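Could you help me review a protein record that somebody else here produced? My question to you is simply how this chain folds and whether the tokens agree. Thanks in advance; the entry in question is below:
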Amino acid sequence: MEIVLVSAGARIGEATGVHMRLQVLGPMRFWTGCDWAPIPSPRPRTLLALLTIGAGRPITTERMIAELWPAKPPPTAATLLRGYILQLRRALGDDGGETIITRASGYEIRRAADETDVARFDALTAQGRTALVKGAAGEAHRLLSQALALWRGEPYSDTLPTSAVTAEVSRLGERRLTAAEARIEAGLLQGRGPELIHELQCLTREHPLREGLWAQLVRALYAADRRADALDSYRRARQTLVTELGLEPGPELRELHQAILEGRSLPGASASARPAAISSATQDGPASASPPLKPPLELPRDVPAFAGRQQDLASLQRLMTDPGGSSAVVITGGGGMGKSALAIHLAHRLRDHFPGGQLYVDVQGSREEATPLQPTEALARMLRALGVAPADVPAEPAEAATRFRSLTSGRDLLVLLDNAVDTAQVEPLLPGERCGVLMTGRRSLTTLGCAVHHLNALSEQESLAMLGSLAGEERVRADTDGARRIVGSCQGLPLAVRIAAARLTSRPHWPLGWLADKLENEQHRLDELQIDDLSLRSAFAVSLRDLEGDPGGQELTRLLRRLALCRPPQVTIPLAATISGTAPDQAEKLLDRLLDARLLESPEPGRYQMPDLLRLFAEEQALRHISRVSGI
């Protein structure tokens, strides 16, 4: 497995244009253009590993020293560090410091995220898991096999075992094992159980507490008509879990055990994975079957008086139901764009298409007062909804994810994951085959391999329809001018229209012009667009909070504040470079990150703009920042 850094325009793996190729899974070496050469001595190798792990963001000098000399740094540590950087630059042909960049606080290695073997592994794994969700076992097996073929050793195997390196090695190892489990699952669904037995026996010896691997081994042995061995594997799994953890096997293993004893088809097994002897035996009499689980019906109430978004609904419904559709879709858009309302309304319309039930989890990535859920907590909620006893919910995230996929496989469930933060949060929450997935989030989550549907602002007609459905159609028809002024100030943002309608509803005899006048005053517009627990400021504050948590968040928030104060009708790259005091290429990266965070819009490449309501919020934040800095 290699990390590959390429010059602009070069493709990974091409000989032409390769600037540096760095192999990290195994002894750290770099490609000189004609041969592999070693990276000099352990500490420079470890320093390069630290830079590679944190690629794309500066690593401070203090952190590097703490990692390289954890017990007692020598007095000359900073000087030694500069010497190691010089050695690395010479070894990598980076005399100009274009790859290892000096920053004010330390150093940074420059590479694009998609130019690494880790990124290729993650992308192939995500695509493979998505194919598995869609029931394309053959495609999933091919993609996941390609991902695992990238591994050629242990990551960072000849560096010092610093805390950062050790944590990264552990993280990569866990992802490798999770991908292997998914690839084995795809193989089992293809009827390849007998050829997977040896691999699963090795994996259960290496990871004896992962129930998912034991369940796969039991299924593989049973598919090979080795019923006694399958029962023996269950016995060994139970003995290990009871001895080591004091726990009985979870419902998946217990159900497999019972099915084998009764000669039934195993849960989640393909027809070809059922032994012929058992199949013919059960044809002579009525098959014994487990009582069906009651389908979970956990969707929130449908959105009352839902209006607009008819084209969005039609497109999403096609994606989720057509044979060639995705059945796994991310609905993305900025704060207040109505992603959750649309997803919930759509999920209710899809109930007949997913008769296995509906699971819903708000993973809390878009609530100002809430902490985003960890994947383990979200998995625990869904496993309990599927009948798993609280005591049987695995504490280990990968095991919980495997259990969830196994329990949902083939059940025709719809899983709605609302307000996602990022890929790392929701990837373990994807269900098994033949299940549908709807996700909402401010980021596009494109590396999951799901279809992505972007929401835009409502048209004036849709906004008026929404206002009428909530505040009264007769009232809107009686004062169309006031209604148009209100929705004009709301700029097609569903949350703003909803708040305006709620304020009108609480004053049923007041004219629409009263609220229209208040909203047209920019200085107080955000004050008017809040009622009870609904607030446009809160929706925008979550985006700002997420932005500040990003690497380089200070640069991004500074540019956002300056753009808000300047109020340009359109933002170009040269203008952003002037405002931010950075080079044009850096300014373009900042603008693209603001675009990805849905804090800017872009009608065409190189041109950006900030919606007025968001600009008002960013302007407020800028003035508060100036007051805080100046001590006013």
